[in-house]
Design brief:
The chain is an alpha/beta fold. The chain is built from 16 helices and 14 strands. GO terms for molecular function: metal ion binding; RNA binding; small RNA 2'-O-methyltransferase activity.
């Protein structure tokens, strides 16, 4: 199977710097079932072409297989098109051969990384389940000009009709990182198959490689389903993340507008939540919707918290949190205290169960009604921490914002903003339904008429309260 990428940027030979492959050499790269050969058939200032040729060993392919991949026929693992067509093997080879370029790095000419260049791509041959319409649905929204040549089943027997194999030619002007990310994801989507087991990690790969274009793609659901090999549970998780704004589930200190205060409002929220967790004597805490890790940093500064877990739907926010917390540089003992994970608050996740306390700082207002109902069950029925601390905007305080029209919310991604009565009505129902007690507290300066900017609810399991009362009575 052969992939060629031609660049006509001036000078076109800059492509060799971007792809980190010397044009005067043939590069042989070991892959799981063969060898990928990378070479340049033409290099000049006007035009540069690089080829990725996969040499798949059919015997190795069978030996690595645990059985038939599909249910087409019993001998599929022995008689198939995998060594001869562009498939997920090609995607794996792209990731291995051009990993530096895919990560947006160029040592010798870093200024080229963000430069859009005119590219021509040819893939021979690529299987497409769904034909020409699928190719257009995938590539046209990304700005590609498409030329397709469909191959017959057998030229000697035209009555057999057309096959599902095409020679695909693409033209577009974009960065090399964008080009590679498109090919990496969309080649196996065209094929509608994968040569390896699909698990949770595949969601992370999809979201990372497609983070700059997939959320806005009109066929994102179709792409997600095929990329995850039609595993509905995984596709639902990925789609929920794609459909949420990057701020969803993250601390929203930039909610606009907010009044200028001597101390930033979001800092007050975080300090108030930390103080509640300290007062609750919690030793293990999960920060749900941890964002860039500001609450985590406060918790790590307190020796009382022996284990701290941060979970967020946004992979990008977690990467920022990792950098800001300097996890790679922490002493071993400190590093064992903290963990960051990606996950959704509307699916049960056993990784967040068993903690003394949970915090949700400015999270619930980003969820619509079905998502909020799912979160309630995930937190209070399944995870069931002893203490839960939740903050959310106080809608009554919005009248104090001069630039905020009546009835408008503070942030475009908020699905609702509750008054104090509405928040308490919700919290009281949760407490009664899941056997918790709840108290409500203002966060920040409190106005006599409209309350504080932020409202907080602190839930505690009634079993804990009963046990503490018995302990105190016994002590007397």
């Amino acid at each position: 199977m052969l992939l060629t990428i031609t660049c006509t940027h001036q000078p076109a030979s800059d492509l060799s710097y971007l792809l980190h492959k010397h044009p005067g050499k043939v590069h042989d790269i070991e892959i799981s079932t063969g060898v990928a050969h990378v070479f340049y058939p033409e290099v000049s200032s006007a035009r540069c072409t690089i080829c990725l040729l996969l040499d798949i060993d059919p015997v190795a392919l069978v030996r690595r297989s645990s059985g038939p991949r599909g249910n087409d026929f019993a001998l599929e693992q022995y008689v198939n098109d995998r060594p001869y067509v562009a498939s997920s093997f090609m995607s794996a080879a792209i990731a291995k051969a051009f990993s530096t370029a895919m990560n947006g790095r160029c040592k010798d000419k870093p200024e080229l990384v963000a430069v859009p260049m005119p590219f021509e791509v040819e893939i021979a041959a690529i299987p497409v389940r769904g034909g020409e319409a699928v190719v257009k649905e995938l590539f046209e929204p990304l700005g590609y000009t498409i030329i397709l040549q469909r191959h017959p089943v057998d030229p000697q027997f035209p009555e057999w009709g057309e096959s599902r194999y095409f020679t695909l030619r693409l033209k577009n002007t974009l960065t090399v990182q964008q080009l590679l990310s498109h090919l990496y994801i969309l080649i196996p989507v065209c094929d509608n198959d994968k040569h390896y087991w699909i698990g949770q990690h595949e969601i992370e790969k999809l979201l990372e490689k497609g983070k700059d274009w997939l959320p806005a793609h009109p066929a994102k659901e179709f792409i997600t389903m095929r990329y995850l090999k039609h595993q509905r549970s995984l596709a639902n998780q990925a789609m929920e993340i794609l459909l949420q704004d990057e701020t969803t589930g993250s601390a929203t200190e930039d909610d606009n507008p907010e009044p200028e205060q001597k101390e930033r409002v979001h800092d007050l929220r975080l300090q108030a939540v930390r103080d509640e967790l300290l007062q609750a004597n919690a030793k293990t805490v999960v920060d749900l919707g941890c964002g860039e890790g500001k609450l985590l940093r406060l918790l790590m500064a307190e020796k009382q918290f022996e284990q701290v877990l941060g979970m967020d739907v946004s992979y990008r926010s977690l990467e920022i949190a990792k950098d800001k917390l300097k996890l790679d540089k922490l002493p071993t003992a400190q590093r064992k205290r903290i963990e960051l994970i990606q996950g959704s608050l509307t699916y049960r996740d056993k990784r967040i169960e068993g903690f003394d306390a949970a915090a949700l700082v400015e999270v619930i207002e980003h969820l619509d009604e079905p998502q909020l109902a799912a979160l309630e069950k995930i937190i209070f029925k399944y995870a069931k921490p002893v203490d839960v601390v939740i903050t959310t905007p106080n809608a009554e305080y919005n009248t104090k914002f001069d630039g905020l029209p009546a009835g408008e919310m503070r942030h475009a991604d908020h699905r609702f903003e509750w008054t104090r009565a509405e928040f308490q009505q919700w919290g009281n129902r949760i407490a009664e339904q899941y056997n918790y007690s709840v108290v409500y507290k203002p966060v920040g300066e409190e106005d006599p008429g409209v309350g504080a900017l932020t409202q907080m609810a602190v839930f505690t399991t009634k079993q804990m309260i009963i046990g503490m009362n018995r302990f105190l009575s016994y002590g007397k």
